[in-house]
Fold each of these.
Amino acid sequence: MLTGYSAFSDVELIADYSLASNFYENDTNHPIPDKDNNGAQSSITVNHIGDAGNINVEVNISHTYTGDLILELHSPTGEKHILQKKSGGGTDDIAKVYSIDMTGIEAQGDWILNVIDTVKNDIGTIEHWSITFL
Ligand SMILES: [Ca+2]
Ligand SMILES: [Ca+2]
C-alpha cells in the first residue's frame, strides 16, 4: 500500500533472506542402476535467487561397494562438479558433506545429484541429500 508508506518513512525494514531459504533437501529414495552410464538422478529445486557462493552438499547413499560410484553435482545452468569418483574401495555407504565454492553460479533452479555405478554386482540407493547455501 503505497498510500500508507509515507506515514512510516522513518521506519527501516530489514529482511534476512539468507535465514529463510538457505537449506534445501530431497529425502526420496532413488535406486542406483547397476553399471549404467546414466546413473540415478535426484533433483532439488532452489528458489534462492543470486550467486550460489559457498555451499555444503550433504549426501547419504547406501551401497555395498562405494568404489563403484561417481557422484556428480549439476547446477541449474549445467555446470558439473564431481564430488567423488570411484574412491572408497569396498567401503559400505556414503555419509559425507562436501564443501564447494560455486561462486559465479546462479543458485535458482533445479540442482541435480547424479550418481553413476560403474561396476556390476554391488548396488545401492540415494537415500537423502541436501544443499546449504552458506
Ligand atoms: Ca530417504
Ligand atoms: Ca555396482
Amino acid sequence: MVDRGSAKLTIVTDDGNQRPDGELRLENGRRLHLAGSGTSITVGERVLAHAPGSVYRVVDASGTEHALVWLDSQSRDWQLDQARLLCRTGIVHAAFCWPIDLVLDDELNERGILLPLVEGRFETLSKFLHRSDLTFDLRLTVTSELADALGKLHHTGLCFPGLDSGVYADPQSGDIALIGWEAVSDGTRYFLGNPTVMAPELTKGEELPSPYTDNHALAVHLFLIFMRGHPLDHELELDDPEFPPDPVFVFDPADASHRPPPDPLVVTWWHMYPKFFQEHFIQTFTVGLSDPPRRVSPDEWRDVINRLRSYSGECECGALVFYDPQEPQKTCWRCEATLGLGSGD
Ligand SMILES: [Zn+2]
C-alpha cells in the first residue's frame, strides 16, 4: 500500500523529545552525514510531522536549505528502498520534489532522506483553479510544465500515480511542484488514490500503475484546467470521492449519454478550442478509456499545448479566441466576427 504522499502534511504539536515509538528527536545544530556525497548537513527546527517520520529544516555545507525526513522505525525499509531507487535514477525534472541523498545516523545506517524544500509560493491545484485572477497564459504554462515533467519521468520507466493529489502551482509564475516522492512508482505495487482522476483499470484494481494510467490522469487534469469541468462526469470536481466504474466522456462524439454538461461554461470553452486540440481529449477519453496505449502521451500533450499557444489571440472585441486551421470560417464566441486563420504554425 502506498501512502498518498507528502502532500498531506500536518503541523507538529510539541510532544517533547520522545515520540511514542521511542524515537529521539534530532536536536537543533546536530550534524549528520550524507550517504552519497559524503558531505554533512546541520539540523535546524523540526517543522512537520509526516507519515514516515518527522521533517526538519536543514542546511548543507554550501548554506542551501533542504528538508530532512527522519524516518520512524515502522516504515523505514519501504521508504528507504523508494528513496534509493529515486536517488539512483537522479532528478528527472525540476518540478519533482525528489530525494537528493540519504542521510546517515550515528551508526552509519541510512535513516533519513534529504529533499528540496517546497516553497510557500506553491498552492494546491484545486485552490489554484478557483482563483478569479487566473490568466489563460498561466493555464498554458502550468499544463505545458506538467506534461513536460511527466514525459521526462516516463522516459526513465517510472510513473507517478500520485498525480491525483500531488500537483501544486505558483499562481504568479506558473511554475509547478510535484509533491509525493513516495508515490513515484516502478509499476510493482498497487496504488489507491483519488478515483475521479485515476484510470478506470486502476480504480477497478485490474492493473498496476504505469505511464498509461498516468496519461489518463494527466488528461483529466488538463481538461479540468482548460475546460473548467470534469471530462467524465459533469457532477464531479477534483476532490470528489465517488466515481462511476464505466465513465463516458461528456463530449464523446458517439455517445451523448453524459451530455450536455450542466455548466454552460464547459460547453463554451470546449467549442472555443481548435479541433486539433479537442481531438487529443476525444482520443484519450473514448478509445483510450478501454485501450490504454491509445491515450495521448505527455510529450504529445506538451507539443499540442505549445501549438495551442500559437493559435491563441484576441478578437477585435477584446475576447480571448483560438484560430482553427480546420475551420477557417470560425467566429468569435462573443461578437461572432469571423476569426480567419491567424498566425498559427
Ligand atoms: Zn469578438
